[in-house]
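Supplementary Methods, section 5.1.

A reviewer requested that the exact input to the structure prediction be made available. We therefore reproduce it here, unchanged from the version used in the analyses.
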Amino acid sequence: MSQEFVIGIDGGGTYCRAVLQDINGHILGTGEAGLTNIMSNANQALASMVAASKQALKMADENITLTDVAIAAGLAGANIPQAKTTFLSLPMPFARIDVMSDLHAACVGAHNGGDGAMIICGTGSAGTVFQSGKFIDKGGYGLTVGDNASAAWLGQSAVKHVLLAFDNIEKRGLLFKRLTSHFEVTQPQSLIHIISQFTAESYGQLAPIVVESYSQGCEQATQLLKEGAEYLSKLGEALLQEAETSLPICFVGGLSTVYRPFLSPRVEQALCDAKTNAQQGAIRYFSQALVQ
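The structure derived from this sequence is encoded token-by-token as follows.
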């Protein structure tokens, strides 16, 4: 049965954004909530989706409930099949739900359903090529073994720098001063104790300190950004190699504007602006299923 109302979800490592629209594509309401990574916490992800969806429904000011809407969701962690299966096994309050990764939803939205590539660099990082109706993914493996250049990686790298600076292996510059002041520590052991329970999101919250230090000419912060940009350039070039023909790359995420000046010329020349967002991308991708 087709649904008269659909909610597009963009669920990332730190946020959840929802947009409610009717069958004719008219936007009726929007909502926001917290983290929506189904691999790290499926129950929290569902709770965030419900909260953001309820906000959108309330804004619509119509007699619509969760059981009246179909959900088209792009969610962090959905690229891992086991995480997606676990999430979809939870009791759902919606009329129906279709799930893809947040990266895929963002890519479809950015190119308005056409062929193209995407690099996303927020709390995590990953890239994909969408061509002939198929995705080819690179990265997105999580902070423990990947997510290079991401906010989480940047924050964790900054902490590693501070520890090396405590040992006088690296220079104690502005980044060292800012982070030790932020944590109010004078000994490496104190810092280790603080970060012992850190998540990727916790590390990601340190990224602005690195960016601020860079903007003030900090050599160590600049080096970290250059290292991250080198990875992103290689990622972009790898995506271009996968493409059957020349494709535009959309580069999005909280750190995209910070890294852009450091990207390789080939990747920089391929960049384009996003046409629509991940919420609309998820709705567009699943639109055929929604009317069945």
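The beta strands are 5-11, 16-22, 27-33, 69-75, 96-101, 116-121, 125-131, 134-139, 249-252, 271-272. These observations are discussed further in the main text.
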